[in-house]
């Protein structure tokens, strides 16, 4: 299977490593890519685990997120800019027959020795 974050790579050589061991993620961009792939694959446990403890949504919010994630078709990811602690990206998806996009600059930090998502800026 190709990796959702980069169709030129195999999932097993890319985001699967992060999904199996979050400590293996070495940059905030790699974490953001692995989170995009987790959205595509509806890996809610990974989305929770890769979210900073102080900004992590409740279990109820994750149930709503899971329902929404299953209702859309993810099209592609574009990374626009990456720094040491932020990533600007566009995540394209189809919802109700219409193409839509999430355009966000995300902030990341390390917590407990690994990268985590803090918030969208």
Automatic annotation (TrEMBL):
Domain YchJ-like middle NTF2-like intervals: 27-120
One matching Pfam family: YchJ_M-like
Transmembrane segments: none
InterPro entries, A to Z: NTF2-like_dom_sf, YchJ-like_M
Protein name: Sec-C motif domain protein
Organism name: Neotamlana nanhaiensis
Taxonomic lineage: Bacteria, Pseudomonadati, Bacteroidota, Flavobacteriia, Flavobacteriales
